Amino acid sequence: MKKFAAESEEGFIEYKLKLSIVEREKIEKLATQMKYRLTEGGGEAFYIIGVTDDGFPVGISEEEIEKSLKILRLAAEKINASVKVIRKNPAKNGYIVELFIRLTRLTSPPLFITIPVLGNVDSGKSTLISVLCTGKLDDGRRGAMVKIARYLHEVVSGRTSSISSHHLGFDRDGKVINYKIADPLNEAEIFLKSNKIITFIDLAGHERYLKTTIRGVTSRTPDYILLVVAANMGLLKMGKEHLGISIALKIPV
Question: Most exposed of 138, 149, 179, 189 (fewest Cβ within 10 Å)?
């Protein structure tokens, strides 16, 4: 069997020759390491059992495989993850086992509330969404807007021209999940840890993109509309247009 590339401290792939210690501290340490690999892989990771850290495929016996799997599953249970065997190949001293590990929800799916964000161009819609979802204030130079922009021309112009969605999660006590995780825009982690999720639909405010904006509203089933009015400009032409569309569609504003 070919030698694997040496294990990297970063990324979502972990090598283990074998696991045999079932002590509580060892399981906790293994769970922490697994959580890191899952974070690196966006909620998914691969473990290869029977391989040394430098990638040499030694192989282990059937008995050692079963014991290693049992320990890995104990660690996975602590972080709400599942372990699945995807491949088992013969090696020098037994077998190499490849495992797929994924974060799972043990409870019912979160409650979703969908809110398209409308308003005149340059009223601060994207900035408001970014500040709410990341918990970081704008720097006055479009720093917040850039975090959720989809295209380079949006970053350059400071104006949204597409449809994008961004999630704000809450736990059972009403506390914001986004502010507790490493990446506040990580959709997978927000979904797994939230009891309620508000999905903000970021839409264009320029009249050139009105059709795109209408599609962004009507392609979903909005619960509410958030109409953003800039304090220094008031309710302008496209803001009034968006308000009229919301009223026509009978969506609470």
Answer: 179
CATH number at residue 27: 3.30.110
Question: Which domain-ending residue is among 46, 78, 103?
Answer: 103
DSSP string covering the chain: -PPPPPPPSSSSEEEES------HHHHHHHHHHHHHHHHHTTSEEEEEETB-TT--B--B-HHHHHHHHHHHHHHHHHTTEEEEEEEEEEETTEEEEEEEEEE--SSPPPEEEEEEEEESTTS-HHHHHHHHHH-----SSSHHHHHH--SHHHHHH----S-EEEEEEE-TTS-BSGGGSSSTT-HHHHHHH-SEEEEEEE---SGGGHHHHHHHHHTS--S--EEE--TTT-S-HHHHHHHHHHHHTT---
Domain for residue 1, yes or no?
A: no
Examine residue 189 and state whether it is found in any structural domain, yes or no.
Answer: yes
Instruction: Give the domain range for residue 179.
Output: 111-248
Domain of 202, CATH number, reads: 3.40.50.300
